[in-house]
Design goal:
alpha/beta; binds flavin-adenine dinucleotide; binds NADP nicotinamide-adenine-dinucleotide phosphate; Rossmann fold
Length: 492
């Protein structure tokens, strides 16, 4: 069989779902086994992408997917190289830079699972000390290697979140949950220290549309309703009545029920409050002129026109706030090859990457948020990854009965025509075991991590956490590198 030596750029959940499915569909002992190799590269030193550096700490059950990833990593056909940035620009100075020219000649197949790592900003709200993207908050409380500064919570009483998606609710929950409740989870000690000094009293969660169009899901809304010591500010009853003659989805009915329940709260009964400010869209932020002043956020009032588009009503209001956090979604990095600026991610058909001139790039694929945009939970990321795996297998074994179940794209006449006219960027023959010499060197120096190194750090983080009565105590890269140098088995 022709070799299938696959490099996956990114080691988030999508990457691991593709890898584990490939490994299980081409078992170690089968006829296709010996010529399969999978190399996962991530610019972060630790694997799992947003599962480690995104999922909120008080959702530990979500991270159980890593058991499946760890199992895949026991297969000797899979290797992980952490701290390697593939491509021209890296936001992380300690990651080893590896250009495409240095990387592509080693692989017959490449999969981009690079996610959507860039927060979408609001044109009226440039980042400043008073306005930060939600991703910086997420990176702060997960101790992401980009190391954003901690938010100034000790001098903040009012926070405004722009956007009403689940990331927005994650951040609101982290700000309003009593730190003692968070202490048992995977919240790094320096983060807990800042949260303990926090003076946040109110979080406004601003959306340009109404309750029926909100992007958050009911589970996350319910968690907000159940926060101890915090309550929702009652909503205007007009917002809680379903429009006449409308048929609501299950999600919409549940949302309205929850909001109706929350609107029965008696003001002043809890120490902290939060509000959902519907039909408001920011138009500007005036920063304070003295340290005792607040910033002033101007909000245009909005409504939906008959085609459900957001339009201004002509009215506006001002909200005094200490910190604005924009949570408007994410896009891929424009430096990812074959990035389509119109989409904000790579252009693909059934997982196959498409070049700007509309041709298939042979044996180059994309999965997860890099291919779909920043939409969807882990379950949908998994389903997409399985479908892309099926496409890879069908392209590699045309006409062969490699058993697939996720319903990936069949090879149609159009596919075959596209494949004949494909852009060629990868070699057909490679040394199955070779890796770029820079990566080899990085492994020796301890700058590049492998899965074994991650296993050791993981066990140590859990051990430290147990001593402190919590899920784990995280290490940053410098600490992990020092720890790994100490426990490294000397090469004889
Ligand atoms: C804050 C947040 C919280 C979430 N919480 C939940 C939740 O509770 N439950 C749920 O089901 N879903 C949740 N999601 C959604 C879930 O995280 C995504 O569905 C999933 O992570 C997408 O997987 P991915 O592999 O495509 O991308 P990612 O997880 O982003 O992985 C991409 C990886 O690629 C790496 N990378 C990028 N560029 C390069 C490069 N040039 N070289 C090397 N490596 C590179 C990145 O470092 C990263 O590790 C959340 C999303 C966010 C943003
Ligand atoms: N617990 C979980 O399961 C969990 C946690 C976090 C994330 N996730 C998933 O991850 C994905 C991404 O979540 P997300 O919260 O980052 O994104 P999201 O769900 O797309 O929400 C983005 C929010 O920003 C608003 N917005 C976008 N552009 C705007 C603009 N110009 N002006 C005003 N508002 C604007 C959107 O409003 P409109 O709707 O009006 O466009 C929406 O309220 C989602 O699929 C989410 O479910 C899941």
């Amino acid at each position: 069989m022709a070799p299938l030596k696959l490099a996956i750029v990114g080691a988030g959940p999508s990457s691991f779902y593709v890898a584990s499915r490939l490994l299980s569909l081409l078992p170690r002992s089968g006829s296709h086994a010996s010529s399969l190799k999978i190399h996962l590269y991530d610019r972060l030193w630790a694997p799992y992408g947003l599962v480690r550096y995104g999922v909120a700490p008080d959702h530990p059950e979500v991270k159980n997917c890593t058991h499946k990833f760890d199992e895949a990593a026991t297969d000797p056909r899979l290797r992980f190289f952490g701290n390697v940035n593939v491509g021209p620009t890296s936001p992380l100075s300690h990651a080893l830079p590896l250009s495409l020219e240095e990387f592509l000649p080693y692989y017959t197949h490449v999969l981009y699972s690079t996610g959507c790592t860039v927060p979408i900003l609001h044109s009226a709200l440039p980042p400043s000390q008073y306005c930060v993207p939600a991703l910086s908050m997420v990176h702060w409380y997960t101790q992401h290697p980009s190391k954003p500064s901690p938010p100034p919570l000790e001098r903040t009483s009012h926070v405004t979140l722009i956007g009403q998606g689940n990331v927005s609710l994650d951040v609101a929950r982290m700000l309003l949950t009593p730190p003692d409740h968070l202490a048992k989870y995977d919240v790094p000690t320096p983060v807990l220290d800042v949260l303990r000094r926090s003076t946040v009293q109110h979080v406004s969660i601003v959306g340009r549309r109404g309750p029926l169009q909100a992007a958050f899901t009911t589970k996350e809304l319910r968690e907000m309703m159940n926060l101890p010591d915090s309550s929702m500010v009652p909503l205007d009853p007009a917002l809680l009545a379903p429009p006449e003659g409308s048929t609501l989805t299950r999600q919409q009915s549940r949302t309205l029920q929850l909001l109706q329940k929350g609107s029965k709260n008696k003001p002043g009964t809890t120490k902290k409050t939060w509000s959902l400010d519907f039909f408001r869209s920011p138009t500007g932020l005036t920063t304070p002129t003295s340290p005792t002043d607040k910033a002033r956020l101007t909000l245009a009032h909005t409504m939906l026109d008959p085609s459900s588009r957001v339009v201004p009503t002509g009215e506006s209001s001002t909200l005094e706030t200490d910190l604005v956090i924009t949570s408007l979604g994410h896009r891929s990095e424009p430096s990812v090859p074959w990035y389509d600026p119109a989409l904000g991610h790579l252009r693909t058909v059934s997982g196959r990457v498409i070049s700007p001139d509309g041709r298939v790039v042979r044996n180059v694929y994309a999965s997860g948020w890099a291919a779909m945009g920043a939409r969807g939970v882990l379950a949908s990321t998994m389903m997409d990854a399985y479908a892309v795996t099926d496409t890879i297998l069908r392209d590699h074994f045309p006409g062969e009965d490699v058993q697939t179940t996720a319903g990936g794209a069949p090879v149609s006449a159009a596919d075959e025509a596209a494949a004949m006219d494909a852009v060629e960027v990868l070699p057909k023959e490679v040394d199955l075991d070779a890796i770029p010499p820079q990566v080899e060197e990085g492994l020796k120096e301890g700058r590049v991590t492998d899965f074994e190194a991650w296993r050791k750090v993981n066990a140590e983080e859990i051990r430290r956490g147990e001593e402190m009565g919590k899920e784990r105590e995280r290490m940053g890269w410098e600490e992990a590198r020092e720890f790994l140098a100490k426990v490294r088995t000397p090469v004889s």
